[in-house]
Amino acid sequence: MKAKEPAVALTYGRSGVGKTLDAGYSFPRGLFLAAPGACKPIPAVCGYNPAVINTVTTIDDATKMIEKVSQLNGSGQHDAVIVDDFSFLAEQTMQAFERRYTGFKLFGALRDSVLRFRAAARYAGCHVLITCWERGPRMRDDGIRQRGGPELTGKLPEQLPAMCDLVLRADWDSMRKPWGGIYRVNGGADWVGKDRDSGTPSPAPLNIGEILRLNGYEVARHPELEWQEEMVEKIAGFLTANGPEGDRDLISQAYTQLISQGKDPRHARWTVRDAWDRASLRRAKDAHNSSFF
Known about the structure:
The protein is of the alpha/beta class and 293 residues long. The protein is built from ten helices and twelve strands. The chain has helices at residues 19-26, 41-46, 59-71, 86-97, 103-122, 156-162, 208-214, 227-241, 247-260, 265-289, and strands at residues 8-13, 31-34, 51-53, 80-84, 127-135, 138-139, 145-146, 149-150, 166-172, 181-184, 194-195, 204-205. Strands 1, 2, 3, 4, 5, 8, 9, 10, 11 and 12 form a ten-stranded mixed β-sheet that branches. Strands 6-7 form a two-stranded antiparallel ribbon. A hairpin with an 8-residue loop joins β9 (166-172) and β10 (181-184). α3 (59-71) packs parallel to α5 (103-122), α4 crosses α5 (103-122) and α7 packs across α10 (265-289). The longest helix has 25 residues, at 265-289. The two termini are 28 Å apart.
């Protein structure tokens, strides 16, 4: 099969739920367009220093950076651009436009800026991940109920997700150990959600890298950690061959083995995280396909 075109994905959720850290785990070869300090957890938890540009202050700045990465796409340096966080970027853009526009012209300028961003993201030639803050469902002034979604102004909470292949709401499940983060794609009448590939279970582990791999996309490993993919697949195979009741013992054994081989504990934890999530996603997909209803 021909490899799929890169995905444009959006994740949104409360601050601190783990969106940025998951982006770090999922796209170690990505370019992060983020505010100063936003990517600080990635070296501490994932064990590598991400490529970060923290001088992007407007949506148009982000568009230019995506276009620049697209022009250099043949180099293979970055397989993704992560815009973290688009809600903050939209606020900054509105403040910049308020110095030049008022009324309808102000919102028209913001809309045009988003349209330019959308075109750049769609034809970037690499994955583009957009993260946003979360805004809950609400009643508009005209009496129309608006679904919860990314924290943006005007019609953007519905329009921005419309450009994406995948829209996931980051949430927390305290019963899921040791990582409680989950993604929900099926938001029903209350929350925006989307999956053009129709292959993402809901809920799913907070692991967009493994979600994209499940749906047939290529997602690169860190150039110094390419050994991870073989180990992830090996561990996931052991897990899926056995029932989920044996997961903890097998995961503990796999982690101990990686540590005994001299692997950095952060990289070992990352590896078993991906393996467990891959097994969980495959089990969910198999369960879905086992019954028509």
